[in-house]
Amino acid sequence: MELSKTDKLGIYALRTTIYQGSTIINLCDIELIGRILKQDKVVIEITKEYFQQEVIGDYKAKQLLQLCSIANLVGKGIVRSALDLRLAKEDSIKKIAGVPFLMIYKFGLKY
After folding, report:
1. Are 89 and 95 in contact (CB under 8 A)?
2. CA of 78: how far to CAs of 18, 84, 89, in Å?
3. What's the start-to-end Cα distance of the chain, in Å?
4. Which of 3, 23, 47, 96 suits a disulfide with 7, CB 3.0-4.6 Å?
5. For 95-106, what is the mean pLDDT?
């Protein structure tokens, strides 16, 4: 079943990785999967292999954003969620071909 554009709002592609005790998430707006973004000499392919281990909704995405150590985010919806949660500021967002990109690294001490 194909989702319409309005059905896709709040739906995200997620890949989770645990590395040395840190939770790393890659999240993107689902409609970006398969797109190739080009701007000047920058070319980025938004692939299933990198982003889509599973498909999740807005509630789970926000939970993961709060719990993760590192987040790689692509798309208006997921970047807006990170801003709404006060995990970043507008100045931190990079746009490539009009698509927002945001990387979040949460510093923490473990002894």
Report:
1. no
2. 21, 10, 14
3. 49
4. 3
5. 96
d(C-alpha 60, C-alpha 40), whole Å = 35
CA-closest candidate to residue 60, choices 89, 81, 44:
81
All domains of the chain, ordered by start, with CATH? Answer: 11-104 (3.30.1860.10)
Angle, alpha carbons 95-15-69 (nearest 5°): 75
pTM: 0.86
Name the residue with tokens 């909704």: 57
Residues in CB range of 93: below 8 A, 6 or more apart: 79, 100, 101, 102
Say yes or no to pLDDT of 101 above 90: yes
**Residue keyed to tokens 């281990």:** 53
Q: How does pLDDT run across 62-81, given as a tens digit for each residue?
A: 999 999 999 999 999 999 99
